[in-house]
Amino acid sequence: MGRPIRTFTVLPHLPERLQALQKLAYNMWWCWNYEATALYRRIDGDAFEALDHSPVKLLGVVSQSRLEELLHDDGFLAHMDRVEEAFDNYMAAATWYQETYSQGDRGQGSGVSKNGDPSLTPDPCPLTPDFRIAYFSAEFGIHESVPVYSGGLGVLSGDHLKSASDLGLPLVGVGLMYREGYFRQYLTVDGWQQERYPENDFFNLPLIPEVQEDGTPLFVKVPFPGREVQLRVWRIQVGRVPLYLLDTNIPQNAPEDRPITARLYGGDVDMRIRQEMVLGVGGVRTLRALGKPPTVCHMNEGHSAFCGIERIRALMEEKAIDFAAAREAVAAGTCFTTHTPVPAGNDVFSPQMVEHYFSPIFPQLKIGRDDFLGLGRQNPDDHSEPFGMTVLALRLANVSNGVSALHGVVSRKMWKNIWPELPDSEAPITSITNGIHTHSWVSPDMTQLFDRYIGVEWDGRPDEHNVWKRVDGIPDAELWRTHERRRERLVGFARARLRQQLKNRGAPPAEIARADEVLDPEALTIGFARRFATYKRGALLFRNLERLTAIIGDKQRPVQVLFAGKAHPKDHGGKELIAEILQFGRRPEFRRRVVFIEDYDMNVARYLLQGVDVWLNNPRRPLEASGTSGMKAACNGGLNLSILDGWWCEGYDGQNGFAIGAGEEYTDLTYQDDVESRALYDLLEQEIVPLFYTRSSDGLPRGWLRMMKRSITTLAPVFNTGRMVSEYTTRCYLPSARRYLRLTGDNLKHAAALAAWRRDLARGWSRVKVVGVDASGADPMHVGTDLNVKVRVDLGAFRPEDVEVQLFHGLVDSLGEIPRPETVPMSHNGAHDGSTWVFSGAIPCSSSGQHGYAVRVLPRNGDLANPFEPGLVTWG
């Protein structure tokens, strides 16, 4: 029978002189400061390793006698004081955001141009002192000691918060506090992935419980059908940025609701929608309960799109306005980032499921079932279409973006049906290429090298690009020695992990002993580590075993490959890839040269990214949205060997790494694998291996070092989250905040007017027609002349100021299309006949060839996010 158990918390007893250890442990700043990491390792290095490098756990197990020793260790105390001073200085220092925007808002960035991209024109609506950005994500990868992340999306979210802290943005994070987090991976004897789900011990994590004014825990309620689910709110401090994590595993909830935050990406579709309600609806309610209502919400992937619905509901309740006006205001203050071109990454729910969970709030929203479901459908009138979270996010966002230039193109094609009248290229989805938090990923050795030779200003500030040019001044011998040390460290780490893996599988002692013979600390080392999804082609390297054997087994110029990565528990194809690689690694010719490291996490990633010579990436283009692991290798001096997909299309310049193929896309996937595996072997045989092993008289690979320096110089200044977050600030956050403040000001007068204008637009747009087009100019035209065009447009009930008439023109391709169009706005001269108005414009003939043009009419309103957003276009 159940026994009533009362709980209490026990904290380590730290002497007053050592209190700084506790203070530092509860701010994740320590994890991107190698001096702080070294401080905790100094307390007990073995325990620190065994406890996932967690200062909080370490302080919980360290003996009082050891603490007494530290009290009398002058060297340790000096080290601690130095780290505490660095932390205090960091928290108090002037930031990029303060320096750029503290003189009052400087009015940069208001309007929005093509593809929803904000321009940098003055805006009369200044920011308010309580301007705040809320960054929503289903996972945050800050450090391996806080396991509430699964992979790239989470690590990007963590890096985003770290750079927001570095830059001083008024930003808060919102996520879920998973009891089990993501799974731990282990492999059976035959290489099949198995999953373990160890529970997170909340009281041994750097979690700070949020409390009310009377000191009692803060709880937030989220409406569910027939009940309310309560959330406990925890905070993790990431430098200057608070991250709020929501937890349903509390006694106040029914047994069926407690597991909502049990497992990241676990459970069925029903569990997924409940998690996304807690994240979106619960996240907004939490910020309001904390007295921190956001000006702008940034939805990192569609998981949090319900935050827009909750903000609309709350605004309607507060201001007594209708749904349409509230939606205009909320969408103005919302940004959305889509992360994947793979359909499985874009959640959809059945109409019945959405109705079940949201029908209780239909009366509060004052809209019907079909109107609500239409928000999540590409075609709102198609009642058989499921409800898509990405579609909802796109419909409720002021600015939407993909995560690389190529991904922007792919996303516009994927979601073009939301704006069926527009060419793909003009769908209002822009792109901001991902980056990495450099300080979190560069090895301590390389950090010291950078500090010494390029100065300490390489901290990710967007205006510090030029310092990276000094990398050329690092002596070759020092750079190579630094890199060789890290490769030796990687080999030592891999051997130790392999020994443990074999022990765990019950391997015989002789096989375990052989683990110390695998890998060569001086051999060319290739790394491949990422989520094992089939489109990432983890086994492409093994397509021609004969050629691979010759490359790997060359005694004069050996090559070795380290693999790591997890497959989603339900991804059978990904698991088969892992098993296949493990079987290849057991072949006699590969046994010492091919190693799979289990349980890929941020710790394994650091060893690999800092120690390999080459980082391999071979997805099927264009399915890689961005990818950031290659950026982490690059800032450590590793060279990328990659398909021209994701970020590498932008990063590769022909001299800073290697490209597999030339950006081709294939329909025959078997043929693609054959062609690209051959290209991969050719690069290894003819370029990579010879370059690595060609040494000068002093034993240095001068050509390789030139390419390492070129890689760091060209990639590190660009592909970092300092640049990325500052770009989000100027292109998304500030324009959205200004538009939100304009639409919500004066008791939402502008939002109501915009909603009314949009209603009139929907009713009257079908009457807008181009009734005549006249061009003056002989065919052929000559370069340097203009083709003058006059058009007559019947505007129905609209006036010329309600529309923009454009000449849509450019070179015509073999299919009769204009693949890269340009537009010229046309002006009216006041002449009209009833509702028909005359507009004129001129097309400059700036190049020879077959040109074409069309006339189109778009709606125009100064309060619109952009003219394409309504999706209404009349073509002439």
Summed up, the domain count is: 4
Which CATH top level class of the largest domain fits?
Alpha Beta
Instruction: Evaluate the radius of gyration.
Output: 29 Å
How many helix segments? Answer: 28
- Poorly predicted tracts of residues: 104-114, 116-124
Mean pLDDT across the residues is 93
Strand elements, count:
30
How far from one another are the termini? 78 Å
CATH superfamily of the largest domain: Glycogen Phosphorylase B
Tell me the structural class.
Answer: alpha/beta
- Shape verdict: globular
Q: Characterize the biggest β-sheet.
A: 10 strands, mixed
CATH topological fold name of the largest domain: Rossmann fold
Q: What's the architecture of the largest domain in CATH terms?
A: 3-Layer(aba) Sandwich
Share of residues in strands: 15-25%
State the share of residues found in helices, binned by percent: 25-40%
List the helices and strands and how they pair.
Elements lengths: L18 H7 L8 H10 L1 H6 L4 H7 L2 H8 L2 H19 L3 H6 L10 E2 L3 E2 L14 E4 L15 H16 L3 E6 L7 E4 L5 E4 L11 E2 L9 E6 L2 E12 L2 E7 L21 H21 L6 E5 L5 H14 L3 H10 L1 E4 L10 E2 L1 H8 L3 H4 L3 H6 L12 E2 H7 L3 E4 L2 H10 L15 E2 L6 H4 L2 H11 L21 H29 L4 H6 L9 E6 L15 H8 L6 E6 L7 H14 L8 E4 L4 H10 L2 E4 L11 H7 L3 E5 L4 H4 L5 E4 L8 H25 L8 H14 L5 H44 L4 E8 L9 E9 L8 E9 L10 E4 L1 E7 L2 E9 L6 E9 L14 E2 L1
Parallel strand pairs: 3-4, 3-11, 4-10, 11-12, 12-15, 15-16, 17-18, 17-20, 18-19, 20-21, 21-22
Antiparallel strand pairs: 1-2, 5-6, 7-9, 8-9, 9-10, 13-14, 23-24, 24-28, 25-26, 25-29, 27-28, 29-30
